[in-house]
Design brief:
Helices cover 22% and strands 43% of the residues. It is an alpha+beta fold. Strands 1, 2, 3, 4, 5, 6 and 7 form a seven-stranded mixed sheet that branches. Strand 5 and strand 6 form a beta hairpin.
């Protein structure tokens, strides 16, 4: 039996790397509220995906970065929250700013890449970070 989900929502995520660390946020809203994740969010109508990624990064963390490439596209299926996101994940190189939680994030900080496996619960997020780190 399949679960009925609403129309998929296009969203972006950003793997912002600074040296051997990655910028993470602690989610303040469902799905996965309270968990560590990548900064990101919905693409606004008429907004390019890469522009949305940089905007969401600024809004959630106060950090500026440059996009270095597309990592992957992931379906975020969250039936318990009644949500289906199409997540377009970009790699980015940190340019300036120290993380300060804003928008939907309750915490933001750079984390050593070695901590990602134990800190992040969703396997897809861990995979995306590994891919971005390996490609730099």
């Amino acid at each position: 039996m399949s679960v009925s989900l609403p129309t998929p929502v296009p969203c972006v995520g950003v793997v912002c790397l600074r040296g051997d660390s990655v910028l993470l946020i602690r989610r303040g809203t469902p799905p996965r509220q309270g968990e560590w994740s990548l900064p990101g969010g919905r693409i606004e109508p008429g907004e390019r995906a890469a522009d949305a990624a940089l905007r969401e990064l600024r809004e959630e963390t106060g950090v500026a970065a440059e996009i270095t490439g597309l990592v992957d596209v992931v379906d975020g299926l969250f039936p318990e929250a009644g949500r289906h996101y199409v997540l377009i994940d970009y790699a980015a190189r940190w340019l300036s700013g120290e993380p300060v939680a804003g928008d939907d994030a309750v915490e933001a900080r750079f984390v050593a890449l070695g901590e990602v496996e134990t800190l992040i619960g969703w396997s897809e997020t861990r995979r995306i970070i590994r891919m971005a780190a390996a490609a730099r």
